[in-house]
Write a structure and sequence with these properties.
alpha/beta, 5-stranded parallel β-sheet, 42% helix, binds 5-amino-5-deoxy-1-O-phosphono-D-mannitol
């Protein structure tokens, strides 16, 4: 049941310290110099030269972060919306590892992309939450995110577990694929990942997102911006927000604002800036373009980071490794979406027109 929580979504947001602890358990070497994904038969990686991610919705945003983690270690990677894979992938061979990222393992578009990959002779490895799901049965290999069952239609704890699992997978590939290079900051990254449950706990217990929600009702639209990995967090923040508040929300690459979307910016369109990682300073520059047009800036980032002074309201995250800062920023945006939807009295756990697992193409 929901226990003391009003909604499963809130319960699931609060359960992330535990779910993320399960995701990493036993997978990080004690000396923080490597990972071991023990259930994975690494034979599937033999001869792999590049990786294609296929996914939908929130899982697509997790895959975008996974792709960034792989490109950081020198692995050629592309990310596809699963529904576009058959038409746009072009030739796929046994040197391509196709990775369907799917919480349920039952999403029709993602299964269709998996079948395309299998037919074209690629190696396949699904990253999923559900043992025994169709994706797990049809892929050559499976890597489980171990988030536990998720009841709310809006993906929260499964997104963060997907991102952490893909981050670990990237480090495994960095060690196993010829031509890939382990990250210089691997010990720092793995140390930060082990501390993520504690940091998520800090965010969920101290978040000011509920005060923010009551101040920000009745606007025309909500724009979410970020760069690099924080762009993926912005896209996910906007998806979660529109899904459960029914308000118009869009995510953009911060640098693209001035190439079109800025025409929509007015005092009636708050802009959420994900000010995490090295690109935060440049995202601030773009947020200022919106502020000049009267938009309220809601920033998310570490205390004292470049985004703080540029924001009308600032939600903080612990100052940890940039990858983990992005995960924590996502948790703040989960709470922002949740509390806004609650103020608007929406059907949070079962938003209109949506299903937990989309089994039609
Ligand atoms: O089960 P999957 O991860 O394959 O589902 C993919 C999307 O349908 C899903 O992430 C959807 O976007 C969520 N409801 C978003 O919160």
């Amino acid at each position: 049941g929901k226990g003391t929580f009003d909604h499963f979504m809130l319960k699931e947001i609060h359960s992330q310290p535990a779910s993320l602890g399960k995701t990493t358990r036993g997978r990080i070497a004690d000396d923080k110099r490597g990972v071991r994904l023990e259930e994975l038969d690494t034979g599937v990686l033999d001869g792999v030269a590049d990786v294609h991610f296929v996914a939908c919705g929130t899982s697509y945003h997790a895959a975008l972060i996974g792709a960034r983690m792989l490109s950081d270690v020198g692995v050629r990677t592309r990310v596809f919306r699963a529904s576009e894979y058959a038409k746009t992938a072009g030739p796929v061979s046994e040197t391509t590892l196709v990775v369907p990222v799917t919480q349920s393992g039952e999403t029709a578009d993602t299964l269709s992309a998996l079948r395309t990959a299998n037919e074209r002779g690629a190696a396949t490895m699904t990253v999923t939450n559900v043992v025994g799901s169709t994706a797990a049965r049809e892929a050559d290999e499976s890597l489980f995110i171990r988030a536990g069952p998720e009841i709310g239609v809006a993906a929260t704890k499964t997104f963060t577990s997907q991102v952490v699992t893909l981050t670990l997978l990237a480090q495994q590939l960095a060690a196993d694929l010829p031509g890939a290079t382990p990250r210089d900051d691997l010990p720092e990254l793995l140390t930060a990942l082990e501390r993520i449950p504690e940091h998520v706990e800090q965010v969920v217990t101290s978040s000011r997102a509920s005060d923010l929600a009551t101040r920000l009702l009745e606007y025309d639209a909500y724009f979410f911006i970020g760069r690099g990995m924080s762009q993926s967090v912005a896209l996910e923040g906007a998806l979660k927000f529109k899904e459960i508040t029914y308000e118009h929300a869009e995510g953009f690459a911060a640098g693209q604002l001035k190439h079109g979307p800025l025409a929509l910016v007015t005092p009636e369109t708050p802009v959420v800036g994900v000010f995490t990682g090295e690109e935060a300073g440049q995202t601030v520059t773009n947020a200022m373009e919106a502020r000049t047009r009267g938009a309220e800036i809601i920033g998310v980032g570490p205390a004292g980071g470049p985004g703080e002074a540029a924001s009308d309201i600032y939600l903080t995250v612990p100052d940890t490794h940039p990858v983990c800062q992005n995960l924590l920023a996502n948790v703040q945006l989960q709470l922002f979406a949740y509390h806004t939807a609650k103020e608007l009295d929406r059907s949070i756990d079962k938003p209109r027109n949506l299903a937990k697992s989309v089994t039609v193409q």
